[in-house]
Structures are given as C-alpha cells and as structure tokens.
Amino acid sequence: MRCLIPLAASAAAVSVRIATPCPANTVPWGDGSCEPFSTAKRDALKWLRKNAPPSDLRNVATLFGTPGGVDGLDAGVAAVAANATLTAKMRWPWAWGVPRDIFRDYVLPYASANEPRTHWHGLLAKAVEPILEALPRHASIADVAEAINGYGGNSSVWQNVGGVKFHSGQTPLIYDPVSTVAFGYASCTGVSTTYIAALRVAGIPARLVGTPAWLGDPTKGNHNWVELWDGVSWRFWEGRPAGGGETLTNPCDKWFCKAARFPVNGSTKVYAARFDRHSNQTVYPLAWDPSNLDTPGIDRTNAYVGMCSNC
C-alpha cells in the first residue's frame, strides 16, 4: 500500500496528492526498489568507511562514533550524514528518483574535499527546512536548488543562516560550511561547500567543481563552483554570494564561463570532486594544498570547453 502525501491546495484547485513510491520507513531508489531504513543506513556507513580518505580513517571513532558510547559518543558526523540524507531521501519527492550510485557519491558524503569535518547537517537543516516546506511537493530538483540559493522565493539558505558574503582569499582559513556561517563570509570555495551542503540536506546530489589554475598558470588564479544533478544531467552555477544573477540553464551567464578562460586547447583543466575512490584514479586537485592527493575526482575539462568556448 502506498502512502499519500497531501499537497498544499491552491485557491483554484483541490488538494493534490503524491503517492510515495515505498512503504513507511523504507528508502526509495531510482530503480523502483525500496529498502528498509536500517539496512540502507548500515550499507551507507559501510560505503562511507570504505571510501573515506586516509586522513579520515585515522579518526574513525570521531567520524563514525563509538557503538554503545554514552553522552553522545555513539554519534559522529558520518553517522549523522547517513541518517540525515537517507531521511531526506524518504521525505522529499524530488529525492525519490535519485539512483543509489549518485546518492552515495554526491548526497551521502559528509564533506566535499578536505575541509574540516563538522556537523553542518544540524546547522543547515534549520535554515533549509522552511524553504523546502514552502515549496510544492511536485517541485523539481532545479526548482528546489533555485529556492535554496535565493531565486524565486522569499528566503534563501544565505538569509536564513544570518547572511553570508563573498570575500576573496579566505581558503583555507574559512572554507567549510560551519566556519562560513559562523564568520558570515567566505571565498568561492567556502560559498560552494556551504551551498553543496544545503543541497545535500535537501536530498539533492551536488559536488564541488573547479580549476586549480586558469589556462594552466597558477599565477592567473583558480576558482571553485557547484554542479548539481537535476535528474538527467549535471548543471552548474555558483552559490549566490559568489555569483548573483546566474541561472541553471545558460552556461554563458557565469562570469567565468568565457572562451578566453576555456580555450579549445583545454589548457584550463576542470575537475569535479567525488567521494568514491575506487571507480577511477583521477584526483581532484586542491589549489590550497597541491600535494594532497586524497580527494577523488572526475575530469570535466572537455565538458566545460564545450560549454564555455562559445561564450
């Protein structure tokens, strides 16, 4: 039997209902299967531990908790991430169709790169929840991403955390979501990891993307931004404090997506960060920590040359 979740009725229409694809306390996957929450959480924690970077494995108890511990010692940010993201996947209709592999790599993880491991789920859930509750249940992933970023709604995650501004040159001092919220500012990396975290709280796949050096020359600077999976493909833009006025539909409305920065010779290398460290050998290069090769990645250079070389 399927549960029916009522939508807020408009003045011109009767209440609409969306049938959940799975019974209560089970997690829906994109292939139509339903998995008991306890089984899904156990599998999620196992996957996170298998793919955690070496530096995190030296802090297993801190990240995953101590079973049977008291006074909160049985918790950890990895355990919180599994619980929060699986709960979001059960709760929000736009998350129901996210496939297991994409969920694991881009919703479940507790970090984007090597930023400090902090309890951002608890912090950002309070800021994102009112935005999600105000959306119609049939909202698309793109609709939700736009609302969280402050386009098309009366609030944003930036407003709801007390305000975040763009300040250049902050990484690696301020580039995790909790620090960004606490200080109220960050550069492109901190704004991006915070927006990614907010999307993941809502069950939306998102990842950090960037170039370690424009035109292959570190003296020309670097940049990070955000890609989100809309149910079909990866779209890109920035957290609003770093790039106001952008859309998810037009690559050329990003200040950095220009032919001068993405020549057809591919000299500007672009990578997307991921958590799965066993699918390929590509590394996401950290401009602030070049010798650190612990963040897995995907080469996105050709995609951005194709999108931006005509802008």
TrEMBL record:
N-terminal signal peptide: 1-19
Cited SUPFAM superfamilies: Cysteine proteinases
Domain named Transglutaminase-like: residues: 166-234
Short name of any one Pfam family annotated for the protein: Transglut_core
Domain of life: Eukaryota
Keywords: Signal
Gene3D superfamilies (alphabetical): 3.10.620.30
Name of the protein this chain belongs to: Transglutaminase-like domain-containing protein
Organism: Pelagomonas calceolata
